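seq:
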Amino acid sequence: MFKDISFGQYYPSNSFVHKLDARTKLLLTIVFIVALFFIPSNVSNRIEQAWYGYFGYMMTFAVLLTIIILARVPIASILKSIKGVLLIIVIMAVINLFVSNQGEVLWAWRRLHITDAAIHTTIKLILRLVMLIIGASILPLTTTPVALSDGLESLLKPLKVIRVPVHDMAMILSIALRFIPTLFEETQKIIATQKARGASFDTGNIFKRAKALIPILIPLFVSSFRRADELAFAMDSRCYNATSKRTKYRVSKMGWRDALAFIFMNAYLVAVLMDRYYWVFEMDRIIFGGWLGK
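struct:
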């Protein structure tokens, strides 16, 4: 059930992206998400003009492909993150397909209908969600939980002025990311044990399947609380104190790789903003206008 979920699992490599500072990757992930939501999603009533809004998605695909090549992460590991939310994407796409009323009606049955504008809107919705998941999954795949928590703590350090427990928040994030794969593995073991005892999780209606999950959830909660209790005792026995000033074994420093990454992602953000507001490049009209005009 959870064997194809890769969120939180670090993929070791010596790539360009792995060598980037964790703070750089956190900030550039935010830049990527912001740019993705600035890509034009409006659809014109004319089918010829509806194709013009795809240039931003083409740029985003090129950026993601470049990052994946530089990160040397297997495509299978990235696609696993999509598989975990594939059902949600399909449901949102189907709902969006029948909700839009713009454009020419291509198919109708009673009160249900599909328009050409709805098809374009649904395609853009799917592309946006898939690219968002892929872009977000690259961060934990190329950054260890310890480096990620240290980077987050460094970025939130100004909040210490107003007495925000930044170190505690970073430690909680680090522990949570560390134990996500462990909990998935524990869940797989519980499911295998229950199946060996004759339990069935794939038969019956949705209510029976939900009821069948109870024998999984109860042992999982018990195991999680036991692990949390053991971790608390281990930290206490080692005299861990979050309030004192702590030093780090490895001090993160930004270098030329981080500068190149900032230039690359900010250039992508500027290109998306130009495509949305200023149409400086007019690439949508050149690419799709010329193709549709034939």
